[in-house]
């Protein structure tokens, strides 16, 4: 059979897989953002007590030190032992919690790259600590964070493919299905799959870059 | 907890047999990736338009698509063109090619961060361009790149687990195998996670040591 | 407490790791007065200034602003009534000049945006920068940034302005424009405490000069006495060094 026919016939399945990958990506990034921001704020402005700070350090170490495939298996088999969870749910959770460990560090260095004088000046003008964080430190930190966050976004797109190992029917697994049913088009199918990831990555990067440009402040150090 | 330890006593020896495989996969791939990365970096910074273009396309392509897809392409796709590799070689090639793209980018960043005056000064005291690069540029650029390079090396160490999907018998694959024999996937992957955590932490400390050993005031930050 | 003091600093002490930086400092400031703190580096001038608005929390002593004691509990409200000008400006880097001068009026004092804008333009005009309202801090010279930061402090309608070595981070050719603005403010009757090495400013604009060394006030008095016939050897030695190098 002609490869173009195969592609025409199978492309809808690939798009469906792409859709699953995008939903997974969005969900894990949101979880990672909210949790990561929370961790970062506690680390920077929370109580200095070891009881609070140590578990956070441990959390980051573990999620950054263990391969995502292992985490996916641990979450999938660990949770499904006590509670009925779909492979997709386990993937969202494992990858979201893991992304939080990375995002918290991105946010932390972004906050730390705002000179201490900015907070001091805001406080000297009578702003409370929370107001100073909200109006002065956060807007600057956000600008510092967009670049590294774009990198995190890129790696997470690619890592959604690993949800394949616990059976989430995302783009890579759809490709695998197609290959097993239609021998002989492996190269084409994977080339198309690679192209889809590439386009998704590029589109996301361009949007984030546009955001960065839009928020750019003349002379504001990178 | 007791269950966890008992499981470990029974199965850890078998799991640990994967460690040499994982480590050799990693060491071979990042070493080859290092040299390929240097070449790509050279092509992008000093090469003519042709080399620049080839190198840029390579870097974009490999950074824009998932490692899993790259590995499938090499292991499952290339045989259709008559190019056949065993699983271990295919994994080495995939990780090498992927890592080279990232290493090239980090090298480029650090080469560009060495002040132009350094090369000018080297040339003006009679060095050839090659000498200037070899004795002045590289020692500074390589020192500066250590932190990012360490990160990249650790990411690739975790990525070796992807080789499991094409059947390389490394830690993850042995874990999955033990899982299907004991039907206790959760425990075995917890133990696999511990092994990876020990590996990544050890590598991180060793690379941190390297960074401190090569520290030169004013060239790198502590 | 003397009745008409705007700022009353009583017996302020501060130590870092057992090293006493301020060993019990007190002075007062009447409305419209300008006092200049001078002394060798490490004498505690900047620490004293920072203690006044609790950027550095003093270990002991009391500070009153218009009769109200400055405490940790009311610190934000008290700071809103004291303008502070930093050595390194600390303009908010992500905001335009106009927004720098507006934001605390709006967020801290609750001023309407229109009124805050009007006030901001007035203060920018006062420091001679009305044409820079839309610029970002990084687009300005150091001298211009410092003038914006003075406008930012003035816009809060403070009872007193505190200057922490406002010209020390500037190239010599840029100090003049900042000093002129400060002289003009002193002449207009602004109440100010200034830590500086600019002796020309001290000489012309100060009502009183306070010489500090080793965490103590060694001597204080009107500039004419301090500069010409100081009774203290330490003060004379310091002024001689400044005269030679400054």
UniProtKB/TrEMBL annotation, chain A:
NCBIfam families tied to this protein: HEQRo_perm_3TM
PANTHER family reported in the protein's UniProt record: L-CYSTINE TRANSPORT SYSTEM PERMEASE PROTEIN TCYL, MEMBRANE COMPONENT OF AMINO ACID ABC TRANSPORTER
Gene3D superfamilies, per database record: MetI-like
GO cellular component: ATP-binding cassette (ABC) transporter complex
Transmembrane segments: 20-42, 62-79, 177-200
GO molecular function, one term: transmembrane transporter activity
Protein's membrane topology: Multi-pass membrane protein
Family: Belongs to the binding-protein-dependent transport system permease family. HisMQ subfamily.
Pfam families the UniProt entry points to: BPD_transp_1
Organism of provenance: Modicisalibacter ilicicola DSM 19980
CDD domains: TM_PBP2
Stated name of the protein: Amino acid ABC transporter membrane protein 1, PAAT family (TC 3.A.1.3.-)
InterPro entries found in the cross-reference section: AA_ABC_transptr_permease_3TM, ArtM/GltK/GlnP/TcyL/YhdX-like, MetI-like, MetI-like_sf
UniProtKB keywords: Amino-acid transport, Cell membrane, Membrane, Transmembrane, Transmembrane helix, Transport
Main location: membrane
Automatic annotation (TrEMBL), chain B:
Organism: Modicisalibacter ilicicola DSM 19980
Keyword Cell inner membrane: yes
Protein name: Arginine ABC transporter permease protein ArtM
Lineage top rank: taxon: Bacteria
GO molecular function: transmembrane transporter activity
GO biological process: amino acid transport
Classification via Gene3D superfamilies: MetI-like
Protein's UniProt keywords contain Signal: no
Membrane topology: Multi-pass membrane protein
Domain ABC transmembrane type-1 stretches: 19-207
Pfam families: BPD_transp_1
Automatic annotation (TrEMBL), chain C:
Membrane topology according to the record: Peripheral membrane protein
Record SUPFAM superfamilies: P-loop containing nucleoside triphosphate hydrolases
Domain ABC transporter per the UniProt entry, residue ranges: 7-239
Compartment(s) of residence: Cell inner membrane
InterPro entries: AAA+_ATPase (IPR003593), ABC_ATPase_HisP-typ (IPR030679), ABC_transporter-like_ATP-bd (IPR003439), ABC_transporter-like_CS (IPR017871), MetN_ABC_transporter-like (IPR050086), P-loop_NTPase (IPR027417)
GO cellular component term of the entry, any: plasma membrane
PROSITE patterns in alphabetical order: ABC_TRANSPORTER_1, ABC_TRANSPORTER_2
Pfam families cross-referenced by the UniProt entry: ABC_tran (PF00005)
Keywords: Amino-acid transport, ATP-binding, Cell membrane, Membrane, Nucleotide-binding, Transport
GO MF: ABC-type amino acid transporter activity; ATP binding; ATP hydrolysis activity
SMART domains named in the record: AAA
Principal cellular location given in the protein's record: membrane
Signal sequence, renumbered to the chain: none
Family from the record: Belongs to the ABC transporter superfamily.
UniProt-listed PANTHER family: AMINO ACID IMPORT ATP-BINDING PROTEIN, GLUTAMATE_ASPARTATE IMPORT ATP-BINDING PROTEIN GLTL
Protein name as it appears in the record: Amino acid ABC transporter ATP-binding protein, PAAT family (TC 3.A.1.3.-)
Species this chain originates from: Modicisalibacter ilicicola DSM 19980
């Amino acid at each position: 059979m002609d490869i173009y026919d195969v592609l025409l016939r199978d492309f809808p399945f690939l798009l469906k897989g792409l859709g699953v990958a995008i939903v997974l990506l969005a969900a894990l990034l949101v979880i990672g953002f909210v949790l990561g921001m929370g961790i970062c704020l506690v680390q920077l402005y929370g109580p200095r007590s070891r009881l609070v700070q140590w578990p956070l350090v441990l959390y980051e170490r573990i999620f950054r030190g263990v391969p995502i495939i292992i985490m996916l298996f641990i979450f999938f088999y660990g949770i499904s032992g006590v509670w009925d969870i779909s492979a997709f749910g386990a993937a969202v959770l494992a990858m979201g919690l893991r992304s939080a460990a990375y995002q918290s560090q991105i946010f932390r260095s972004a906050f730390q790259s705002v000179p201490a004088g900015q907070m001091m000046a805001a406080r000297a003008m009578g702003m409370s600590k929370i107001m100073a964080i909200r109006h002065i430190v956060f807007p600057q930190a956000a600008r510092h964070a967009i670049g590294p966050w774009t990198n995190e976004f890129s790696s997470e797109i690619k890592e959604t493919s690993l949800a394949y190992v616990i059976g989430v029917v995302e783009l890579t697994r759809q490709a695998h299905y197609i290959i097993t049913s239609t021998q002989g088009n492996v190269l084409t199918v994977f080339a198309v799959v690679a192209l889809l990831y590439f386009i998704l990555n590029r589109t996301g990067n361009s949007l984030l870059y546009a955001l960065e440009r839009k928020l750019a402040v003349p002379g504001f150090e990178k | 907890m007791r269950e966890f330890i008992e499981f470990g006593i029974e199965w850890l020896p078998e799991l640990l047999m994967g460690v040499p495989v994982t480590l050799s996969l990693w060491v071979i791939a990042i070493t080859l990736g290092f040299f390929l990365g240097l070449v790509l970096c050279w092509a992008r910074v000093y090469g003519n338009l042709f080399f620049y273009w080839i190198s840029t396309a390579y870097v974009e392509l490999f950074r824009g698509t998932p490692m899993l897809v790259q590995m499938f392409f090499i292991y499952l796709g290339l045989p259709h063109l008559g190019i056949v590799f065993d699983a271990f070689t295919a994994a080495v090639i995939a990780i090498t090619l992927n890592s080279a793209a990232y290493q090239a980018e980090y090298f480029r960043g650090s080469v560009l961060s060495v002040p132009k005056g350094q090369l000018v000064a080297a040339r003006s005291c009679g060095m050839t361009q090659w000498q200037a690069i070899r004795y002045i540029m590289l020692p500074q650029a390589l020192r500066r790149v250590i932190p990012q390079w360490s990160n990249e090396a650790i990411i690739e160490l975790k990525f070796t687990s992807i080789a499991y999907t094409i059947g390389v018998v490394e830690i993850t694959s042995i874990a999955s195998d033990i899982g299907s024999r004991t039907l206790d996937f959760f425990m075995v992957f917890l133990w696999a996670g511990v092994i990876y955590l020990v590996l990544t932490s050890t590598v991180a400390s060793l690379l941190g040591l390297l960074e401190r050993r090569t520290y030169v005031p004013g060239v790198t930050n502590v | 407490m003397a009745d008409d003091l705007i700022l009353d600093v009583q017996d302020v002490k501060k130590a870092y790791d057992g090293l006493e930086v301020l060993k019990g400092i007190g002075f007062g400031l009447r409305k419209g007065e300008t006092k200049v703190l001078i002394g060798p580096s490490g004498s505690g001038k900047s620490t004293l200034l920072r203690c006044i608005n609790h950027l550095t929390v003093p270990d002991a002593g009391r500070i009153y602003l218009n009769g109200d004691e400055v405490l940790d509990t009311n610190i934000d409200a008290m700071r809103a009534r004291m303008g502070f000008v930093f050595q390194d400006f600390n303009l908010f880097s992500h905001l335009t000049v106009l927004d720098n001068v507006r934001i605390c009026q709006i967020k801290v004092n609750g001023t309407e945006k229109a009124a805050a804008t009007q006030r901001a333009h007035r203060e920018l005009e006062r420091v001679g920068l009305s044409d820079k309202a839309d610029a970002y801090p990084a687009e300005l010279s150091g001298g211009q940034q410092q003038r914006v930061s003075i406008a930012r402090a003035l816009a809060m309608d403070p009872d007193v302005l505190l200057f922490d070595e406002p010209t020390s981070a500037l190239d010599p050719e840029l100090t003049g424009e900042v000093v002129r603005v400060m002289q003009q403010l002193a002449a207009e009757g602004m109440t100010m405490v200034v830590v500086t090495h600019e002796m020309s400013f001290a000489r012309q604009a100060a009502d009183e000069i306070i010489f500090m060394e080793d965490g103590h006030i060694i001597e204080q008095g009107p500039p004419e006495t301090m500069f010409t016939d100081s009774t203290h050897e330490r003060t004379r030695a310091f002024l001689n060094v400044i005269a030679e190098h400054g």
